[in-house]
Give the backbone structure.
Amino acid sequence: MKSKTAKGKKSLASSSRPSPSKSAQSKSGSGKSTTINSVPTMMKYPKFKDAVENLDNLINLIPCKFVLSDEDEKQMTIHSSGLDASADGNERMENYKSSTIDPRSYLFKHGNTEIRLIDTPGIVDTEGMDEDKKNLDKVLRYLPMIEEVQGIIILINTMDNKLDVTFKYCITELLTQLHRDACKNIVFCFTFSRNSHYKPGDAFYMLKQFLSDELKVNLKLKSKVNCFFIDNEAYRFLLAKKCNYSFPPEEVSDYKNSWKRSVEQTNLMLNVIAGLDAHDLDKTISLNNSRDFIYQMAEPIVDLNALLEANIAHIENQERELQDVTKNKLELARNLNIVVDDIDTENLPYPTTVCISEKCMDYVVDEKGQKLEHFKTRCHENCQLKVDTNVTGHHLLANCWAMDNTGNCAQCECPFQMHRHITFVTKIVKKTVINQNQQLKVDSEKDAIEAIKKTIKQTKQIKNEMEEEIEIIQKISAKFAYILLEHSNTPYNKFLEPYLQFLIREERKKIGGKKGYSTAKLETLEKMLKSHQAQVSILVEAIKSKSREDVDIKETRVFQRQLFSLKHSGPTFQKLFKDKDFEKITAESWPYLDISVDI
């Protein structure tokens, strides 16, 4: 694997063969971090006896904590620090919370091959849907640091036996992010496999049916080819024994067998991955840049379509009025201002923290029904935190001056998750398209009639231009959709909407009629559902066009420039996307470099 390292750092790929990179992804709670911990120890001590005799030399990459009970129900907390001291802050140690916070990579040797193993946050995070989106964004920000990946390991608890909306959402969300070409590099590692005797269990057959019957992706499951079965209980046994926890002698043989079977499966999995052709990550990065661009465009496209159509209707009404012979033509000619709606942007001189909860935000609605967000509660002007703009609930906003020590805003009393940074606000303004009073002096009815005819001609031209722009926007949307159809496993996660609806129902049950219960999470989920529906609407309509042009996946920048150059809506697109960043995050900006592991 070719590695991009920060300035001043030597490349960590030092073996004669390029070091394959393996990315581990899973649903939260599948034992991903524990699996990553156990792999290098298994490589160092393939025999269980040697591992037991070298408890002080166990390799623990990631901090872990778990609780064991004895026969008298007395609990003992087993805690082990990670190899990298800074990693402690990258793991949540609380019970019932997802562990990994940011992607990290670990470098070690397996035989003559150097392996870079990347630990990533899980999917279906215990902190909620918004955290899932942030976790995936972190992974995508990490990818530009490497150029190719040998294997993508998806971990699944072999005991999962419910094909519910959560499972469907999780698997689909992972596959949605990957380029179709990456399917050949995906392997599934089923954890807790002692329960299925290290063979395919409930989760295997459930996943197999889901991939073939519902998702219909080119991903065939086969044991020892792209499916492997391990159990981490023996590794936990070693950590517990190191902390002087006593096990009955009759249980040790079970752990010994578990270690032996897991070592065999892990070696087989790593050897299979080492023989795969690497996936070019530029394909996956470009695909996700395209998807991000499409999703960023979704709401502006919907708004501008409605705006153009409203303006066309407005012009047609004024055209009919001009043609009405019952009107005084001379008086009409003196008032030939054609007014249309436009979106204007007011730049703020500094970043400002605002609240987007229902009580703190209004929608400005003009006479044509167009809606724009109006942030009536500005909680902290001139906020100096380095936070991405227009990102709701950024974790750094908890440190904003406006927030108290409970994470709630002292200004509006809403949680920090309902806040964002803005650097500009938008508003609808009236725009004069034609002002004949500045050009003509109408002194007679004849002059008035000529002026009216000229105005009607110009209004028709404006209407035609706006109609052409709508058609161009729709064609560009179709090109975006074609990119996703051609290069992704699935253009969008069709299980996200039912998953959001499920979460909304659950949150409403929690709220019930309780007084004082915060509705912030419910409001966030409802906003996410609305945004997702707008994005899907754009894609579905574009797909219906059945456009099959030969579109390069890296052409999204060209499409962006085309939208910016539109006569009427181009300036609006430029304003709306002024602060949006579609560039890759560079390796130099990523704080977590490779951590070398000696085996």
The two ends are 20 Å apart (CA to CA). Residues 337-439 form one domain. The CA atoms of residues 194 and 231 lie 6 Å apart.
